[in-house]
């Protein structure tokens, strides 16, 4: 949808007052359309609500913003728009004057406010003129659609024509602002909101000249309300200079939306058999000059590119778009200087020139160099590494590609090649840059991470940001790789940044929580223990699971803090349950990084003593895939835990050759395997669980089947000889209170009869 990007701006994190107001106004507009409410009341209410919400947000912003005059002017414009919508019905017979003066006042106040708002990114005059020519044809289409929809009986022809021209111009301007290349800055969002607001006011003046009693005036409610809210949101982003993630709309929307509006407006005339009037014919003919001007601009661009030295570059560096455009060479990037990479202005100029070219225009590669142990490498040697890396890059890139400084330990490469050739260039750069660097007796090995972004019409700053985001993703994935930019990548990185920002201090703020999943004996279907599972209840990000939480904690170096909190809280809960004479054990997961610390056994013993928990009630689990690199240390720590009386478990056992080989060395009491081992495969008709259970019997290890989701898997595991089971088919992870209720219903104390809860139902916790 056209308005999906601005609506996402208002509601992307949590329901806001603005989103709630929009949701409540929708049924009011519907009620006015069917005649349940007066149209004048609905329009007045919408204008008042929008002006109030936007005005409150702008007034708060003005109180803490250095750009106070601009914000106050925009706030005054919003208030004027709200008064224009709400007051004219009360001023009859002066409503015509108020309806006409309102848009003029809003345009004046908002125009001055936009000029003083920071973050306005103005392209060159030539680019603005070309964009104006490109928008001419769809703008005429919107004007013609407005003229066809204009009621002829309520206004004279000149007034209707002026209103149609105003509606079409405002509609095209708002469409360009909200879906164009400069939508990301806050000033562009604010400008689009102003244009939508003016569009709504013009609709009011055009569709309800005799007052607001007509239902046609309800068409002004959506652009008016949404426009005022976008003015406030855009002003906040522009002042904060922290624009949100880019979700650019396709350029074809500027052509499709006017065409669709024109078809909808023409349908009633064609269906009724009415002949077009003279004004309609003249407006239709007005499309021709705009088409001619647009083609003249394109022809001038083609002529300029053909006359430039870029036309003489090798074919490999100027890929053609299609067989009909073989003469249109992709413009070359400026020649790089002989010594050192180019500076940032040269980089921005090269990206701006490529952005004006027809697609595929080119690509930007941002290279990050990382030297392991860089803190002990002298600064002069690091400079030598960067100089040598630039020299190697120049030997790989094309003669007209540009190498420019990108800040930090890296550089950027601008190429006119298409996306496929640009990715191939990135792989060649990666191979050249990761070769050892020799300086006298010193030999350094460097890791390289390359982010790749295609050059588009969004502007040089956007392309730089996108390529840098791709570079950061390459760093996160382990370096020595080339990563593309895409919208999903940006969402992942924004999510990762939010996690890294909010996670530190989560323990101190009391945001961590534990849930517990019972472990059930398969023979009698009774609970024998639980596994403590970590949950982060973030007020900003919601509930975050360990699969997403722990990698971030490891990168931040706080995974130990989280795991010791989990162990402490689990032992405290276990002590409370043990006071009720329940013979249960508690399993806690630890990472190999924390397990291999020298004081892990001593600190575990201290926690058990602090809560007076019998050691055999605690089970420490370690994941099998991470054991291999630290096998000897893991064996020593598990043996130390068993000497205390603590039971140990190997989680996520994969039943592979290497896993079976190292199983003999690990001092464990429980072996946890996935339910997939229970299901036979065509290659191995006999389920692997039989092999694992037989091996466990020989080693004296009990087997626990986890992640069980069906009764068939439970029956198969029981027939194979597994003693315990865990999974959604038995019980889901829930809070301690619900686990206690589950124990009350299905648990038993010594001497109690043995109830058998439903296997597939999972009791109260399923």
TrEMBL record:
> Is Transmembrane helix among this UniProt entry's keywords?
yes
| Annotated keywords | Membrane, Transmembrane, Transmembrane helix
| Chain positions covered by the region annotation Disordered | 303-342, 746-766
Q: Name one GO molecular function term.
A: cyclic-guanylate-specific phosphodiesterase activity
Where would you find the membrane-spanning parts of this chain? 20-49, 70-91, 97-117, 129-149, 161-181, 193-212, 218-239, 251-268, 280-297, 402-425
- Start and end residues of each EAL domain: 496-747
Task: List all Basic and acidic residues biased stretches.
Answer: 314-328
- In this chain the GGDEF domain maps to 360-487
Q: Please give one Pfam family short name.
A: EAL
Q: Mind telling me what this protein is named? A: GGDEF domain-containing protein
Q: Specify the species.
A: Micromonospora costi
